[in-house]
Amino acid sequence: MAFGTYAKGARTERELISIFSDAGYSVIRAAGSGVNSLSPDLLAFKRTKQYAFECKAWESGSLSIEKSRFERLRTWEDNTGITTFIAWRVNRVGWRFVYLREFEEKEKNFTVTWTRAMEIDRKIEEII
Asked: What residues have CB less than 8 Å from 11, skipping those under 6 apart?
């Protein structure tokens, strides 16, 4: 992974940490976030609410996650019972949150288009 890409991803994760912390959540950033694929990037807890986020800052018309990574996220969600989202941030638009089940399986990956993410239109206000 290029350093610039890592820095952008880490910056995006810190932004989401700040948003949830300001809303009274306890937030954990996974060790090795952006490097390993053992768990989602962030965990957020507030009483009965529990969320896991795999954060993506991607300016493309679609977002794809390789099958092995996606399957690990799905297994993680099944094992923990914690609602897991892909948190997708696009400049000048903001965050959209997509459940794993809303991705479409392709030959080599799981994909969601920005058009589909906008149709779902799950914003941060609905999560918090």
From this structure: 57
